[in-house]
Every structure is written in C-alpha cells, then in structure tokens.
Amino acid sequence: MKKYTTILTNILTLLLCVSCGSDDAEFVRLEEIPQWNVNSAKYQSSMQVVCTVNSESLKIGDEENDMIGAFINGECRGIVIKPVSTEDNLQSLFYLVIMGNQDDEDEKVELKLFDFSQMRLELSDTNLVFKESKKVGSVSDPLKLNV
C-alpha cells in the first residue's frame, strides 16, 4: 500500500508543479522523499548534462537526499543525487545522465529539483530537449538550472 501512496504522491506532485499559475508558487512541499527510478535496460541511448542550480530558494547539494530528476513525458529518465564540488569549492556540479530511445529525439526534458532540508520540489524553467549522445554543459561552463 505504501508503494501506491508514494506513486500517487508523485503523480499529484507532478500535476501540482505543472498547474501552478504563479511564478512564486511553482513548488510543492512533500511528506516523503521522491522515489524516482530509471530502468536503464529500457533505453538504447543517453545524453549527458553537467549543471549547477541557480536558486535562492533551494539549497540543492547540501543534504544527502537532495536530488535532480530528468523526466520525458512524465517518466523518470535520469537522477543525480550527489554533486561534485569544483576545485575552488565555489560551486557544486551535478553530472546527470538522461536515458532515451530514438523516438525520444527532440522531446522536452523536464528537470525537477528536490531540496531535502525543506522537503520542497520545484520544476526548473531551463529548456532542454533530448538529443542522443549530446553533451550539455561542462566543468568550466555548466548548464545553469533556474527555478
């Protein structure tokens, strides 16, 4: 029963994040950590993203259970939990692998950010589309995820 409750919570979270009308209200507070999973055996290709989080409201990377999830058509295609600090310790970098198939080419990728300390889930407004074998961002020039 708990599994179905978690699934229902994740579905409601998705609906709430998508349906928020105000720019200031595009987040949801959760009672449980999202249970995002990716079955990489279902996919033939991937793309890579090196990113940072550009947000004053979220502190992604400070807690062990902070995470970023990549979704195509509502299905989780990539998860990153642990950031890597740059040599100068000025920013945290997230290395995200997004899985897909040939029919996912040019599909919109939604990025959800979960801040464990606030139990807060936000949808990034950063535009990203799936491209097989594409690399987006780098250590010296990471993609900035805006929320």
Describe the structure.
The chain is mostly beta strands. The chain has one domain (2-146). It has one helix and ten strands. The strands form two sheets. The chain has a five-stranded antiparallel β-sheet, with helices on one face. Strands 2, 5, 6, 9 and 10 form a five-stranded mixed β-sheet that branches. A hairpin with a 2-residue loop joins strand 3 and strand 4 (75-80).
List the topology elements.
Elements: H1 2-19, E1 27-29, E2 45-54, E3 67-72, E4 75-80, E5 84-85, E6 92-100, E7 110-115, E8 120-123, E9 135-136, E10 143-146
Parallel strand pairs: 2-9, 2-10
Antiparallel strand pairs: 1-8, 2-6, 3-4, 3-7, 5-6, 7-8
Keywords: Signal
Signal peptide: 1-25
Protein name: Lipocalin-like domain-containing protein
**Shape by Cα distribution:** globular
Structural class: mainly beta
Mean of residue pLDDT values: 82
Number of domains: 1
Query: What's the β-strand tally?
Result: 10
Oligomer: single chain
Q: Give the strand content.
A: 35-45%
Helix content: 10-25%
Low-confidence stretches: 1-25
How far is the first residue's CA from the last residue's CA? 33 Å
Described by strand count, sense and barrel closure, the largest sheet is: 5 strands, antiparallel
In which order are the strands of the major sheet placed?
1-8-7-3-4
**Helix tally?**
1
Q: Supply Rg.
A: 15 Å
Spell the H/E element sequence: HEEEEEEEEEE
Entry summary:
The chain is mainly beta. 12% of the residues lie in helices and 35% in strands.
